[in-house]
Amino acid sequence: MNELTLLLQCDELIKQALREDITSEDVSTNAVMPQAKQGSVDLICKEDGVIAGLPVFGRTFSLLDDQARIKLYCKDGDAVQKGQVIARVYGDIRVLLSGERVALNYLQRMSGIATYTRAMVALLENTTTKLLDTRKTTPNNRVFEKYAVKVGGAQNHRYNLSDGVMLKDNHIAAAGGVQKAIEMAKAYAPFVRKIEVETETLDSVREAVEAGADIIMLDNMTIPQMQEAMSIIDGRAETECSGNVTLERIAALSQLGIDYISSGALTHSAPILDISMKNLKPIEEGDCT
Fold it and tell me: Is the same domain home to 83 and 184?
C-alpha cells in the first residue's frame, strides 16, 4: 500500500464521510460566515508521534473546494512533536470549517496507527522478523489504515480475500482437516499463490508441514509451544505467529526466529494521535504566506 494507491482509492470514501457529516448544510458555519471569505488555519500536533495521512487531510478540503491549498511543513512518516505546526491550510473559511472534523478524523486515526506501528517495529530491530497487519480494520477504512501501517514501518498482510489463500480454522473444518484443505487449495488456486494455514496445535503443525503448506501460522500458542512448533517446521515452511500480539508481548516473540508476526492491534487498538486545527484567520485573497 503506497501513497499513489491510497490516492487512487480515497476520493469516494472521503466524499462518503463528508456526506455523513454534512447531510444538507453546515448550519453553524453558514450562520457565522454567510459569504465567501479567504482564510488560513494551522494544523498543530498536540503530542509526540508519527504523522500519517497528510495527503488525505489535504484532499478532504480540495474535494469541498478545488481552490483550497495546503502548505506542508513535514511529510508522512516524519516524527512530530507536541506543539509543532505541521501544515497550514488556505481557502474559503466556510470550507476550512466544514471540512475540519472529517479531515482531522482521518489524520488523527492514521497518525495514531503509524505511531503505534513504529513503536512495535522498534522492538523488532536487530531481528529478521517482519511485522504485519491483518484484515481487522474499520469497514470502508482499510485503505487508510493499511497505508498508515506502511508509513509506520511494518508490512501489509493480504489486503482482502482475493489476495491470497489463508486457511483458517473454519476453512479447515469445512474441508475436513488440514491435509484435505491444503490439497483442495492447491487444486483450486493458481500455482503462483502461496498457501498459508492457521494452526492451533502441534499436531496440526505437523499435518501442515507434511501436506506442503507454504506458510504456517502459529495462532494463540504459548512461547514454549511455538518453540516446539519451530523445531517441527525446521525451515520447511515460512512461519508466522498471531494472536494477542501487543507492545508488551512482541519483544518475547521476536526471540523465536519467526519470519512474520501479525498484529490486529495495529489497526484495531491504536489510539489516535491528538492533532488540532487552530489560529483560523481571514486573509487577503491570494496571500498564502
Answer: no
Counting the structural domains of the chain, the total is: 2
Domain match, 101 and 131 both: no
CA distances to 44, 94, 173, 277, 278 from 83, in Å = 6, 25, 53, 12, 11
Cβ-based neighbours of 125, under 8 Å, separated by 6 or more: none
Residue that has been written with the C-alpha cell 490486529 in this structure: 264
289 inside domain? no
Residues with a catalytic annotation lie at: 101, 136, 168, 198, 219
Q: What is the CA radius of gyration of the chain?
A: 23
Residue 158 C-beta-side C-alpha neighbours within 13 Å: 12
Residue 14, domain CATH: 3.90.1170.20
Q: Is residue 287 domain-resident? A: no
Note down the domain range covering 162.
121-268
Residue 99 and residue 130 in one domain: no
Same domain, 14 and 141: no
Of 181, 231, 188, the closest CA to residue 211 belongs to 181
- One pLDDT digit (tens) per residue for the chain, 289 residues: 788 888 888 999 999 999 999 999 999 999 999 999 999 999 999 999 999 999 999 999 999 999 999 999 999 999 999 999 999 999 999 999 999 999 999 999 999 999 999 999 999 999 999 999 999 999 999 999 999 999 999 999 999 999 999 999 999 999 999 999 999 999 998 888 899 999 999 999 999 999 999 999 999 999 999 999 999 999 999 999 999 888 888 988 999 999 999 999 999 999 999 999 999 999 875 565 5
